[in-house]
Amino acid sequence: MKPSHGFKQFCFVFLLVVALIFSLTGCSSGGTTTSITNNFPVVVFSDVHFNPFYDPALFPALVSADAGEWASVFKTSSVTAPSTWGSDTNYPSLEVALSSIKQNLESSPLVIYTGDILGHGIPQYFYTYTNGTTIPRNLADVAAMKAFTDKTVAFVSGQMRASFGSIPVMFAVGNSDSYSGYGPTSPDSSFSQDSTFLPDTAELFYTKFLNSTVDHQEFLATFNRGGYYSAEPPGMNLMVIGLNTIVFSPGVPGDNDSMVNAELAWLDAKLASAKAEGKTVWLLMHAPPGADIGTTVAHVDSDGHINTTTATLMWKPDYQASFLQILAKYAGMIRWMLAGHTHMDEYRIPSSSDVLEITPAISPYFGNNPAFKVYTFANGAFGPTDFKPTDYSALNYDLAAMPAPKQFNRYYTFSAAYSLPGLLDDSLAQLFPALVTNAGKQNLYRGYYYSGHNSPNSTTDTHYNSITDTNWPIFWNGIGKMGQQELIDGVNSY
Fold first, then answer.
1. Strand ranges (DSSP E) for 218-314?
2. What's the CA dihedral at 472, 475, 478, 481 to 10 degrees?
3. Of 353, 369, 359, residue with least CA distance to 429
4. What are the mean pLDDT values of the chain's consecutive 10-residue runs (494 residues total)?
5. CA pair distance 450, 446, nearest whole angstrom
């Protein structure tokens, strides 16, 4: 019996729908699907630095309460104004920041956070309010401080999860994400104060942030010992690698050679695996490689010059060299690199094929306005972009505005401000030389650096000062000169 005309129509429509689904989701030759291939945004924020001590009157209640009860405690505070320059994020500021991020999620398949949940000086504040000194009296004081710190991590990560729903949060650990403020170290580290932070908080980071984008045991195996991991958000054929670059810093106590070597060997193996499997890679870190611009600027002489005693780097030179060798080995494989730590709106060019973007801070501790960014991915707009960002918009919270804003507002959009359409990393590479030859673009960059605060003299760290004609060469060379000597030569010959 021949099929009826109606049945033929049904089959035709069914096949058309199936074809449409495949055209929207995509299908790789390996049989895995990539469902997110069209336009979408990704919200990136950094350096919340939540300060639970902003209202000292609340301290006894916070010690007694569970982390899930802290929001109710904070709502009883007489302090209702957001944090201002020179201070860390208080609860009113945290509410505004997370609400504004939530409003800008739209179709974002994930959120990216590049580190520093905890405020500056958590241990010192805790001991001061506990026993009147900045140091512990005994091991019981240390244990109590650690428990309070863990509750702070649980509270902030829980607030993030409540704001973002089920969207995965890809993250990197920061230097303040520790029991000392120096950064999380290995359980085998000779600096024992922070040796338990990673295993103590691993479950929080896994459950509140990653949302099953990586196998539980696989995550614990690397995070417990080194603070790094990789995750693969569903439907993206994407590997997100979260590094712990705090241990690369010369300021972290202890002998960290074995920990860093293990992490870099793991990174090399992960990139090799991603290459073999045809995966796109995004790389997250907290402290970026290259110049420590804030510290270097503090010691510039009257002629704008620096030398080997005043030009400082974020990482130990050997660690940085090994990292850059890995980037060169997998040139062009990493589609997006992000960092935080400096609190400023800036970027670095660590290699000829890689650009690293630094996200400004939510905390105004270093004299910046709170800010975050929403990146745009427009696959096909400039050829096959393969999860490369095409643009971003910066949103800031202007602490000088009166009355106080109720949310973060759109500050600028990169492509429009700099007249540089195209793939973002290509545009940033083009912007680097233009910041010398084009006065208009240089003025924009200098103005945006502190997210709109034009006189960023911090009450807590006075070396973060306004960009001047004298110190500008440090800021500019810091974008593209990774090594100490090339930084010195570039600044002194500018």
1. 229-231, 238-242, 280-284
2. -20
3. 353
4. 44 37 34 53 98 98 98 98 96 98 94 97 94 91 95 98 96 93 55 76 96 94 96 91 94 83 97 94 98 92 93 96 96 94 97 94 96 89 73 97 94 98 95 98 96 67 72 97 96 96
5. 8
